[in-house]
Amino acid sequence: MLDTTRAVDLVTVILITNAITVLVAQVYLVPLLTNTPLGQRITVGALIFAVSQLLFWINDTASAFWWGLVAVVFSIAEAILLPNLSILLDRLAPEHYRGAYLGASTLVVLGLSLGPFIGGALLEWWGKGVFTVMALFCLSIAILMLINKSKINLRLDK
């Protein structure tokens, strides 16, 4: 079990690593993935997110290096997935509802503000199993993208 000081140190490492990795990764990933189909970018991002959740799950160390490494994997997934989900929403939304769809998508800010509280409570109640559930959710996104690939491509081509 971590003491409070060590936990604060690890959270600091994770947050700083996340911020730096997202900023640096987007500089390199955006040009690299430009010619990759949107659905494929989302699928890859979701799969990397799933891997990061499993890495958090198997982590039994208080090593700042390990937590930072897992944060890099998580952050790369974030840099790929989050902008592309917004692009997908923009392209799939009917033109006359686009503003409403994008406005509703900003509710993610509510999740960002409540996330630490809810995540902490889930970890307290269910322990590291939460990461397995999150990995399954990420895998389900990838599977749904693959299952609906042709339908999504039809909508995007309109």
From TrEMBL:
Keyword Cell membrane tagged: yes
GO MF, one annotated term: transmembrane transporter activity
Record InterPro entries: MFS (IPR011701), MFS_dom (IPR020846), MFS_trans_sf (IPR036259), MFS_Transporters (IPR050171)
Domain Major facilitator superfamily (MFS) profile as annotated: residue spans: 1-158
Transmembrane segment boundaries: 12-30, 42-58, 64-89, 101-123, 129-148
Top-rank lineage group of the source organism: Bacteria
Keywords linked to the UniProt accession: Cell membrane, Membrane, Transmembrane, Transmembrane helix, Transport
Localization per record: Cell membrane
GO CC term (a single one): plasma membrane
Topological relation to the membrane, as annotated: Multi-pass membrane protein
Protein name stated in the entry: Major Facilitator Superfamily transporter
Source species taxonomy: Bacteria, Pseudomonadati, Pseudomonadota, Gammaproteobacteria, Enterobacterales
